[in-house]
Amino acid sequence: MNGPIDSRRVALDMLVACLDKGQPLDDVLARHQGFAGLDPRDRAFVRLLLATTLRRLGEIDDVLGQLIERPLDGGNAPAHQVLRLGAAQLLFLGTPPHAAVDTSVRLAIDAGLPHLKGLANAVLRRVARDGAALLGDRDPARLNTPQWLWQSWAESYGEATTRAIAAAHLIEAPLDLTPRADAMFWAGRLAGELLATGTIRRAAGGTIAELPGFAEGVWWVQDAAAALPTRLLGDVAGKHVADLCAAPGGKTLQLAAAGAEVTAVDISARRMVRLGENLARAGLTAKLVTADAGKWQTDQTFDAILLDAPCSGTGTLRRHPDIAWLKDEEDVGRLTLTQDRLLVRAADLLKPGGTLVYAVCSLQDDEGPARVAALLGRDKRLARVAVRPEELPGLAEAITPAGDVRTLPSMWAERGGLDGFYIARLSRG
After folding, report:
1. Global confidence as pTM
2. How far apart are the C-alpha atoms of 278 and 270, rounded to whole Å?
3. Which domains does the chain have, with CATH numbers?
4. Which residues have a catalytic role annotated?
């Protein structure tokens, strides 16, 4: 499978699966056979087209809404995705108009909607001609952020910070790597910047598996903010550490590389296979347990526990822009119940004197400080251990008045930003 129309057919199929069927884009990318059959250049184009469409969906829909009189729903719904892909190419990717319009018309026909080929042609030709004027001086940060997210962030962080967060989501995230050792050497070898927290940062793009050191497992992909929770456990060499909700395993690899005796627990068998592969590539070991961490039964207790809990993922929109359109407030409410259950179990598995680090890659307060406050309110064995500025070099602004950590996508803006995380460190008396 090759060629412009084939890659766009795949992109359409995947966008329909994501936006019309509610499937996370990462899952669609991993399982779509047509995508796997494309050559590397076309796969890269499909990724870029989908990411751009999702990242700029609010602006795209605003432009299309000015040109389409009636909703495209029911059996005509795929045509809406055809127009979104075409508009993304014309407005943001610089695709030649004839290529974007002609392939979109063919997509409409291939999707069983020949009666809409005239509409696709007329609408996209208008976008090609008047797109800049139709976008006008509108507010990209606001338009590309769903109302519920903007409101919740404004309540938590204020309007100015919310705008900075939303603006950061419009920029492709850089490639962050965690080195197993010799960070300075590998930063040079990889032509990357060694950040103050120990992460190596490269510009996005290229094939990861072709970079020096990948095959030997001397580094792994992990956002700079995602690498912080493990660091806040301190020296774990020789300690028994549980990594709950561990897959795909960046934090497990960190712990094993630091000399911990790691037990990694995750509910997903498929993701645990991937974790095992990552450990083998890096030459590291851990005990792998496929189980629901909240119900996992074991007689063992642990010196330290890392709980990177399932969450809405709203702190990762730079890398996963589909989340903005697939999640809502009800999802957050359901996830908080899971987070509470996992925190209770983690506290019970912790030895007296042990350390528990709770983390979520979410910007929602309900999934972060509210969960820790609820746990401390009902479990008097636990106490907060404040994070010190020297533990977060270059990120002192991320330490909250309570001593927790709150990273925002707008932080380190001059370096490309970082994911939004909430991290709390607790000890058991």
Report:
1. 0.94
2. 13
3. 4-138 (1.10.940.10), 175-428 (3.40.50.150)
4. 361
